[in-house]
């Protein structure tokens, strides 16, 4: 196991740094993860496993710690108090709600950013074609719509062939129609590249549409794990879809809601 690039550091003598390592197998494992910002406890003993190629959605009320968990897996937070053990694969990519493209570089430049391989350009062009942006390599980020910018962000993530894709509300800022299109695109990309995925979302329907398993976080702990049947999207299982939706809304404390 190697050290986590994010440096999961303990700053208080009473806190033990979350230990992090890399799993060659591509497995994700979180054990008894505790995290706090100042006096505020955010994650209070999270256990989570994600198998290679598995798609897990993370739902939970606002402020329950979803992004904190994702950031812990990404190794993004520094000077944070906590303890626990995190194991992630070697290659991890992250996408956020905003595309975080560099405004001073072209679409192609953004996708190849940091890639040193001699074939980076051709791989980036292929990734852009996969997300439906062939021919837009020379465009600047400001010339793209919000949905197109998120497509570039997805291409930038996938060109690195991640074993784990961490996605923090990647479609949260998009309109409903673009969002549905992006769901289809993400499904195609995941089927082609087979990364494990952890998707943070507020959207129950998005979670049901995309995930193999849905983890509900509450008060910094895993409150519920629900498996999504592969048939759930089919017309034949409309009742199953509705029942799962109802159960998840109840998990989230939303009762008596049908839509
Ligand atoms: N860097 C930080 N410094 C201080 N407090 C933080 C920091 N990051 C997160 N928090 C706090 O931790 C708690 C959990 O935040 P987090 O963003 O993980 O929640 P979330 O479930 O993703 O919320 P939302 O659904 O609203 O995005 C919040 O109360 C937040 O204010």
Describe the structure.
It is a single chain. The protein is α/β, with parallel strands linked by helices. The chain is 30% helix and 26% strand. It is built from seven helices and ten strands. A six-stranded mixed sheet has the order 6-7-8-4-9-10, with helices on both faces. α4 packs parallel to α5 (176-193). The N and C termini lie far apart (46 Å). The protein binds adenosine-5'-triphosphate. Residues 37, 42, 60, 62-68 line the site of adenosine-5'-triphosphate (ATP).
**What level of helicity do the residues show?**
25-40%
H and E order: EEEEHEEHHHEHEHEEH
Low-confidence stretches: 1-17
The residue-averaged pLDDT reads 87
Largest sheet: 6 strands, mixed
Counting DSSP H or I runs of 4 or more residues, the number of helices is 7
Class per helix and strand makeup: alpha/beta
Kindly provide the radius of gyration, computed on alpha-carbon positions and rounded to a whole number of angstroms. 19 Å
Sum up the overall morphology in one term: globular
Distinct small molecules: adenosine-5'-triphosphate
Oligomer: single chain
Q: In what order do the strands lie side by side in the largest sheet?
A: 6-7-8-4-9-10
- Count of individual beta strands: 10
Q: Into which percentage range does the β-strand content fall?
A: 25-35%
Could you tell me how far the N terminus lies from the C terminus, measured between alpha carbons in angstroms?
A: 46 Å
InterPro entries: AAA+_ATPase, ABC_transporter-like_ATP-bd, ABC_transporter-like_CS, ABC_transporter_ATP-bind, P-loop_NTPase
EC number: 3.6.3.-
Keywords: ATP-binding, Cell membrane, Hydrolase, Membrane, Nucleotide-binding, Translocase, Transport
Protein name: Sulfonate transport system ATP-binding protein
